[in-house]
Amino acid sequence: MFTLPAPLLLRAIGDDDHAFLSALYASTRHDLAALAAAPAVIAQLIAMQQQMQGQGYRTVFPHADYAIVECTGQPIGRLVTDAQADRLHLVDLALVPHARAQGHGSAVLRALQGAAAARGLALTLSVLHTNEDAARLYARLGFETVASDQVQRRMRWSAP
């Protein structure tokens, strides 16, 4: 793991974080929340999608590290990273709505860049084409697109 600048902190995910993680995931799924369906159906669909995401991450990144991002003692996000021999991969970074556009995401990314640089590794990630705000943030922080398909672009940062 690595250290974040105060007032941010990374900590291990605990059993009592389930409700927070569910609410966090739901806050990222505007596409599902906007469906014309009963709220209970939408909630069930979001829960199934969250479970599928978790299973997918565990399959593709079996050695990934999962952490809660806190600000002044309150959980504000989740970070999933996967350290490989040739790169550090950002699997997922999600922040609750009130913590977005506050500089917290940038601080986490800069800390990841520092950790990757200290190990002599590139930092890689994938971002959906529909997530334009995140793509702009990554570009501002020096990430370059190295590949793209119909769904996402793969980006890479290397220390100068």
Question: Layout of helices and strands, plus pairs?
Answer:
Elements: E1 8-12, H1 18-27, H2 30-33, H3 39-60, E2 65-71, E3 74-83, E4 87-95, H4 104-118, E5 122-128, H5 132-140, E6 144-148, E7 152-157
Parallel strand pairs: 4-5
Antiparallel strand pairs: 1-2, 2-3, 3-4, 5-7, 6-7
Summarize this structure as a short list of keywords or feature phrases.
160 residues, 5 helices, GNAT_dom, acyltransferase, alpha+beta, 7 strands, GNAT family N-acetyltransferase
Quick recap:
With 160 residues, the protein is an alpha+beta fold.
Describe this structure in words.
The protein has 160 residues and is α+β, with helices and mostly antiparallel strands. Helix content is 38%, strand content 31%. It has helices at residues 18-27, 30-33, 39-60, 104-118, 132-140; strands at 8-12, 65-71, 74-83, 87-95, 122-128, 144-148, 152-157. It has a 7-stranded mixed sheet with strand order 1-2-3-4-5-7-6, sandwiched between helices. The longest helix is centred in the first third of the chain and has 22 residues, at 39-60. The protein is globular. The relative contact order is 0.13.
Tally of separate helices: 5
Outline type: globular
Q: What share of the residues does DSSP label as strand, in percent?
A: 25-35%
Secondary-structure class: alpha+beta
**Main β-sheet, spatial strand arrangement:** 1-2-3-4-5-7-6
Strand count, sense and closure of the main sheet?
7 strands, mixed
User: Can you tell me the residue ranges where pLDDT is under 50 for at least 5 consecutive residues?
Assistant: none
Task: Name the helicity range.
Answer: 25-40%
The N- to C-terminal Cα distance equals 22 Å
**What order do the SSEs take from the amino end to the carboxyl end, as H and E?**
EHHHEEEHEHEE
Gyration radius, rounded: 16 Å
Provide mean pLDDT, rounded: 92
What's the total count of β strands?
A: 7
